[in-house]
Automatic annotation (TrEMBL):
PROSITE patterns: HTH_TETR_2
Keyword Lyase set for record: no
Organism of provenance: Pseudonocardia yuanmonensis
Stated name of the protein: TetR/AcrR family transcriptional regulator
UniProt keywords, alphabetically: DNA-binding, Repressor, Transcription, Transcription regulation
Amino acid sequence: MAVRLTRAEQVERNRELVLDAARRVFLDQGYVGARLEAIAEEAGFSKGVVYSQFAGKADLFLALLERRIAERAELNARVAAEHAGIEGLRALLVANTRREAEDGWARLLIEFRVAAARAPEVNARYAALHTRTLERFSEAIAAILARGGLVPVHPAPVLAGLVMTLASGRVLEIAAGTTPVDVEVVVDLLSRLVEPA
């Protein structure tokens, strides 16, 4: 006998199906190229169902970004719990670089960031989420360094911002087909920005 979902469960299930479909379509077609019609079709719904869950394409992308931030923070916290010091920082950077290379999300996020910069309300929502990302990433960095008896020369959020800036640059260099800065070079540079506690 099939179990009947409550209205709230059905709404949540539909939301998850739309989010999963949106992720696939965005990664395949890019942010600018993705259309809500294609996302609805991929999810097996009408466009009306998508609009019943999300205000538009930017709202849908930002919901995906929120999910991604939570997933990344959880993975980074695991790395931080298992590693310490400069070697821990290396492990964190390698794990993040591997994730960026695996799924194409980093390149998609850069595309979204450029589009969002032209829409003040969307950009403000993105900036709030990015601030959360920086906070969580800086917490992971600070924990790794502290467990190794180190502190950053600059505040951990500055170090986290530098890492993220370098990561975005790496993604763009790879997209252009040029040689990106190697992770070991980044680790070497960052190791010069820490000192004993």
